[in-house]
Amino acid sequence: MRMKMFAAETFEAAKAMIFAEMGADAVILSEREIDGGVEVRAAVDKMGGVGMVPNEPLFLRDARGGGHGRGSENPLFSRVRDALLWHGSPQRFADRIAAEGAGRVQHLRDPEEAISEGLARIVTCDPLPARLDRDILLVGPPGHGRTATAAKLTRRAAMARAEVAPVAADLDGTAGGAQLAAYLEREKSQIRTCQSPDDLFATLKTLKTENRRCVIDLPAINPFDDDDMASLQDLISVIRAEPVLVLSAEGHPDDQLEAARSFARAGIKRAILTKLDVVRRRGGAISALSSAGIAFSHLAVTPFIGGGLVPAAPMRLAALLMEDAPGDVIALKGAA
Q1: What is the Cα–Cα distance from 98 to 30, expressed in whole angstroms?
Q2: Does domain 135-330 have CATH number 3.40.50.300?
Q3: Which residues lie closer than 8 Å to 53 by C-beta, 6 or more apart?
Q4: CA separation for the pair 304, 308 (Å, rounded)
Q5: First CA to last CA across the chain, in angstroms?
Q6: What's the chain's Rg over C-alpha atoms?
Q7: Residue 169's closest CA among 236, 250, 264?
Q8: Using an 8 Å Cβ cutoff, are 190 and 181 in contact?
Q9: Tens digit of pLDDT for each residue in 111-145?
Q10: Buried b / exposed e across 268-293, counting CB within 10 Å, b at 16+?
Q11: Keywords, A to Z (predicted)?
Q12: How far apart are CA 111 and CA 320, in angstroms?
């Protein structure tokens, strides 16, 4: 039996350290409060190699082998991992980011810089250009901010002196055209509203003959409804537009992961992460998109239509993943 003492600020953080280092078979033997935190003793029966738990992830094994240490051996590793766990990131994602950043790179001292380095090795950031080179089809679950995002992309293009036509695909009769017009401070008649798939196809054909790009605000899609997802795949197959997921940072990490994977299976490769200004814990959504293999396009960090989108980058994601970082921490740095 192998025993070890772990010290952390909270019992939950200590447990995270234990299971990350000793594996799921670890048993907690004792715990007590100490100045500044808790001290927990744990043990594991199975050993392998030269003291490594056999089922330890390869990326953690690499971090140990690199000589920089992890857990209690590397305070920066613990700081990064604890920040990600506080934000609701799954254990494995938090461990991997900490290992890729604080565990591999010797010169790092700042937790935010270490998170950025770890994210740069794992996630993909691929912002949409202000001057769109193809039409955009915004998809996403109910209430995640698709219409506001359509307005923001339209306003962003106008600021870049590139006209983009906003199209409300009001296929479910929820007055999406009126809402989009209100966001853009336009008359409803100025918004191209489509009441049926045939209307949408005709509108897109007209815009193509006029050589104009558009942003299509599609009705809400339930990622857990097979019929909804089948309809989305059918639409993607016949419309020459890039489907872009609009995903809110709100919600349970498991639901976010399942939703992201469902949209990825439908062919979505890029996402805009919204409502970052109204949530405190953002790790679930970020890890969900990363695990689903969906690239980050933009971050919606304010409710304002003008200047409400920030091009995604590892350093910006890292700024949002420090403990209790305000949602507007990056709002004035690169917004468009």
Answers
A1: 26
A2: yes
A3: 21, 22, 23, 25, 44, 46, 47
A4: 5
A5: 57
A6: 23
A7: 236
A8: yes
A9: 899 999 999 999 999 999 988 999 999 999 999 99
A10: bbbbbbbbbbebebbbbbbbbbbbbe
A11: Cell projection, Cilium, Flagellum, GTP-binding, Nucleotide-binding
A12: 12
